[in-house]
Amino acid sequence: MNENIIREFSDIQDELLAKVKLENTIQKEEIQSIAGVDLAYWDKDGKAYGTCCIVVVDYRTQEVIEKVYSYGEITVPYIPGFLAFRELPLIIEAVQKLTKLPDLYMFDGNGYLHYRHMGIATHASFFLNKPTIGVAKSYLKIKDTDFIMPENEEGCYTDIVIDNEVYGRTLRTTKNVKPIFVSCGNWIDLDTSTDIVLNCINKESRLPVPVRLADLETHKVRKQLSK
């Protein structure tokens, strides 16, 4: 069963990968709003459930513009490398609840930094039709390649290079705090992604504000729904 699913999912990812463009379709000065996207899961009565929370913030002030969430039973099995297929239905449902679409989506997860360059931020872009960025709290190790720790200064980074290709970036957003892992989703380049992430950092967290707020929201909603 899983072999057939993996073959089907792989074919879809290969088809989408051919359309990925790691170049800017929007200028930083044009960005007015950014949506942070995160998901959380829980089990109940032998079934898996999930919620997707989206928090849209003003890019300049970081003030919250809108919050929405979706939830439901998860029917796609967990298969490493193919998480997007499990998460997409809830993401699309949550996006449909937004009263105004943001200029860019920032995911709590990876984009191009993925075994097949198809992390959730990249995969979801084709359904959102907006530039996307992946921001991960922990490192996804690919082909036994470790990341190089950046210098201990805010804004320092090292590129994650695998087989002579840049997959993403290890970024120090706050001094004396663990780095995060930034990668392009789609329709944006890595330098611009890095700048946008750094512009969304405040003193409360190493994570950019949209992702941090979405993460907090998923914990809150999951707690409410799983009771």
From TrEMBL:
Cofactor(s) recorded in Swiss-Prot or TrEMBL: Mg(2+)
Catalytic reactions on record: Endonucleolytic cleavage at apurinic or apyrimidinic sites to products with a 5'-phosphate
Keyword line: Cytoplasm, DNA damage, DNA repair, Endonuclease, Hydrolase, Magnesium, Metal-binding, Nuclease
Function in brief: DNA repair enzyme involved in the repair of deaminated bases. Selectively cleaves double-stranded DNA at the second phosphodiester bond 3' to a deoxyinosine leaving behind the intact lesion on the nicked DNA.
Protein name: Endonuclease V
Compartments where found: Cytoplasm
Positions of the record's site feature: Interaction with target DNA: 78
MF (Gene Ontology): endonuclease activity
Binding site for Mg(2+): 38, 108
Family membership noted in the UniProt record: Belongs to the endonuclease V family.
InterPro entries named in the record: Endonuclease-V
EC id: 3.1.21.7
Keyword Hydrolase: yes
HAMAP family: Endonuclease_5
